[in-house]
């Protein structure tokens, strides 16, 4: 359990006030616009800034408690902090940078291996170089490696992937997922990218101008109306809790059962019967009045229109009920009229693509809330 | 070229300058750190105290040393009684005088270097599990090296040139405390001592240029090492 | 500062007397008397005779040079900086052996005096630098003529000025000191335990000369005053041997 | 015309060699993985690093020419450089930072107005603050404003938007587009995001380990096979050159005519008859054997299958011919079998969403190639 | 408390220290810049030359000043003949002596500060259209301010304590060149001068602490201004 309940005012007028408790393993995403206070929260957990009041505890260990006068020194917290700016030591080679935290960790507790990290981050050829000769992305990769090798009991990542290309991101994310799952390392993750958040996070804390807008399991938070101003319109979607029901190796597809039926998705690395989470973006859901025949779209589900919300601009939000589940769809207003969509209408939902997250299902249990 | 007597003075000067710098450097680093980073009541006083040897006439500094560290001085008597350390009239005393006079310069140079160290890097080191002390030795100190070198250079230079405090505190005892400046001083006070004074001045100049050259080389190497080149 | 740069020796400025540092107190008193009597101020610059001589050589616009020993006066004369014809030597000094008042024991200095027994196991004897500060030079001469130089030499500590040597004796850092009687007179906590025989060293003299180009009635008047009866009284008061 | 033809070797073994000529207005994207040499190219144009040999000329003005010994000083080049790290002046307030370059530009040539930039970047409340009190994103916004206000004759942007949230990005991009169109300011733009590149860029230069993989008009480069290892699979798509044919204000939609028919898209801010460019991602194109009736998908176009490429994993790439135009589609292998897709088959392309770029069409003319 | 004579010495010391620092600072900044940033043949020599006044006994420095800038000196004679500038015996001369002696300290402090300035910021300024000179004044100099302040402080402190070069170069003339250290020197040659020497020493201490306090305040303000607090 990671419990954070802090207040902090900065010169310049910014005030942070947030309180949440998230599971002590898995990934918690801090999400919010530029200047919302994400870095400030991370800094408070690391001990780099001291809150005016409040309490911070990670897995039962109290890092900070203004009431009891506790303020554990930074180095004793062992939070592997990946800074927004890489902060590599200029006087050390890349290798010595990587080893810096490793040397200072207890030898018996080294689940993260040097070779594995170097291999993963593709920094082998850079080991003898000095930080000032690295490119922006190379620097950030070394910083990630350095934090991992410090064998932290908590990982704090402040937009660690922003400077990386898509391909590199796609390589690092699964490693972080594996780390999260295998070492049960809790991760506090700051990101602007809702895709990254949804892919990685179990728990989501949304900040807006220093205030906590929402906090809780990703699926739950994403459907809260308070999130609308935080998320961009195109990022709206639905999260479906599913169980792997079948694999189809010939086509490299898997079937997932959920409350509204079954989804065909690219093969997932989970055994049949395991829980997974699927995300369907509203813009990827089209609606048909009659069942379209012979279309390439694999997922066609019978649905009932529950609500039609016309918006400014060309779009409308349609809420569909698919079996027991709800599904959001985004279509043009023109289509609403053409298809005469209205609540109660029976339609077909065409789901063009599905993002599946093979997270360890035990992390999806709702955490207890605490504080504000 | 030089008389044996002059060689003695040169050797002694080098010895005094080296040891004065050697012993005062760690204390200077500590003092600089305290002045730059710590905050406590009476810090202003410490600050003032450190710069005092600079602002006072060196002869006064020497006299104050005499009062405190002389064989009858209120610290000196115990140094002698308890540890058998005699400073007055000895090379050790000359070293102390040189160290005291160069101390403010050393501290100042190191302090400037310390203040230029990016504290974000120190924070980063602590998040990686390094204690404050560990951070100091593994991050702060290496990044300060050019400043420390510069401080050491100033210390050596000013120790080579130190005269007033040395002669007042430990006087001029041949082979013990007679450094180049004392020899030069004597030479300039003899009507036909100009030639000797000039020779010794040239020696000083050569020593100064030599140590600068050396410092420059070391400096470039350090900078390359810490990636500031 | 424009002000700082324009300050200089304007024609109306008082004459400047270059005087050895050991003359400081006597000359300051005499300067006041002179001003009282004539209404004309005098300016002094007190420093080591050597420094003053070098300054004269570099063109310092002083009127009178009062040296603490003959060597530097000979030097300025030799460089044609001061006027030999104006040389006067109104005062001298004697060389004395001093000890801290609390440890003082009277002794007599002669060729048979046992310096090592007098100084003890590792006692030091303080004086001016024996090759540059006049008192030290005289001390060396005296010890040499007494045949004690070689034995005493390792025990000698040469100070930058007689005053500094005095301080070492006052503080008890040195067992004894060799200084001028005038210095001993103004020091506290020291006692003169012996006077060096007059013949053991060249006479300690303070020659005065007028600087070349400054030989005018006003300077002459000042020089006369410095050697006159009022001045002699002051010299006596400070322990100088008036000739 | 921006002509770049340079060679440059760095200590650690990296060597850059690239030569391209791109139009003197519009946006040229530098695209490539971390460490490919993008920043190095930008630095050479700014004059911050000196190439070992070569030539750099912008709009006829030679910045660098090793053969003729020309090396124009940095400040005379007037390249508004937005650094990967913001590099704000710590001793100046945000406002003074912004004004720094403005003050040094000629007063008669100030198309970029202070108020407009402040407004756009949302940095009004920060004007009196010091850089060290800003969040990462705030810092980057100020850096962008500072470069714009220097009234540059060329804008160099090194991943300027990586630290910004989607909403902020969405606000700034159109402004950059407007700037590009109105002031005819050429922009060299480094980005990892192909979306950003496609949205902004007219010309694309792709780098890989210091070598130039491809350079030319975006549409042309994107279809080159050499680009496959540079682009991720999901980012494949088709660019269509279109002409605005009709506006439909009631539904906030516009119609675009292209070689293969007409597309219905969210309203574009261009007059009827003007050229625009539309991008259709392969994953947004579904295929139907018979015309689906009553579906929310607005764009249904008759097409002929030209080519079917099965790939590893669940997917297949289908090339369609729509009238005179070609259109890429990505479907599952299962769908290929189910629908029996094969070259020559007549099908319907269902285009769920279209990204339209309202670029000034005259920039799309192909630039002359030069050098390597 | 103090006699008029002593007040004169104190006022003179302050005047000398202030003007010595004031005039030498721009040159020190320039020298530091050249040493830190430029590279040209003979730079090592310049480097050595700058540190020379530190490494030489101050008396020798004063003597060299006398030889060059005295009324008969090979520069001094023209200063007098062409500009009517007389240095010997004058406050201006004392100011020159203090400036020369403190110069290496000032240069060293400023140089360290200069080397700590992030060159990336200078590059950024140039891309915004600032010429090298403009960059220097608008970016480099403001970021160096703490170092310059520190250099000025050292200069003032060492000017306040300067004795050897002053007395050798411009002698010891009341109201013109008799600064506090010279007054202390004179006091030790006067019976009962000890009290006066002590008083003046205390004044020195107070001045040192005062200027440090002031410097600390200014420094904190500057650091806040340049965002390093
Ligand atoms: N000063 C230097 N000395 C030696 N090598 C360098 C130096 N600067 C950069 N490099 C190397 O040159 C290559 C290209 O660097 P560059 O900064 O241009 O990459 P980039 O494409 O901008 O990457 P990123 O997206 O990570 O910022 C990298 O491999 C880098 O390590
Ligand atoms: N040292 C400081 N002094 C005053 N205000 C500060 C300081 N540091 C940050 N702030 C302000 O606090 C607010 C939150 O900053 P924070 O760095 O936590 O934002 P963020 O959510 O991480 O934003 P970004 O995504 O842009 O990095 C911002 O408005 C910022 O300007
Ligand atoms: Mg942040
Ligand atoms: Mg880069």
UniProtKB/TrEMBL annotation, chains A, D:
GO terms for molecular function: ABC-type transporter activity; ATP binding; ATP hydrolysis activity; molybdate ion transmembrane transporter activity. One of its GO terms (cellular component) is membrane. Residues 294-360 form the Mop domain. Keywords: ATP-binding, Cell inner membrane, Cell membrane, Membrane, Molybdenum, Nucleotide-binding, Translocase, Transport. PROSITE patterns: ABC_TRANSPORTER_1, ABC_TRANSPORTER_2, MOP. InterPro entries: AAA+_ATPase (IPR003593), ABC_transporter-like_ATP-bd (IPR003439), ABC_transporter-like_CS (IPR017871), Mo/tungstate-bd_C_term_dom (IPR008995), ModC_ABC_ATP-bd (IPR011868), Molybdenum_import_ModC (IPR050334), Mop_domain (IPR004606), P-loop_NTPase (IPR027417). Residues 1-234 form the ABC transporter domain. Belongs to the ABC transporter superfamily. This is Molybdenum import ATP-binding protein ModC. The lineage of its organism: Bacteria, Pseudomonadati, Pseudomonadota, Alphaproteobacteria, Hyphomicrobiales. The gene is modC.
TrEMBL record, chains B, E:
Pfam families: BPD_transp_1. The keyword Acetylation does not apply. The chain crosses the membrane at residues 16-36, 48-75, 87-114, 135-160, 196-218. It is a multi-pass membrane protein. One of its GO terms (cellular component) is plasma membrane. It is found in: Cell inner membrane; Cell membrane. Residues 10-213 form the ABC transmembrane type-1 domain. Keywords: Cell inner membrane, Cell membrane, Membrane, Molybdenum, Transmembrane, Transmembrane helix, Transport. Its main location: membrane. InterPro entries: MetI-like (IPR000515), MetI-like_sf (IPR035906), ModB_ABC (IPR011867). The keyword Chloroplast does not apply. GO terms for molecular function: molybdate ion transmembrane transporter activity. Part of the binding-protein-dependent transport system for molybdenum; probably responsible for the translocation of the substrate across the membrane. Belongs to the binding-protein-dependent transport system permease family. CysTW subfamily. This is Molybdenum transport system permease. It comes from Ancylobacter dichloromethanicus.
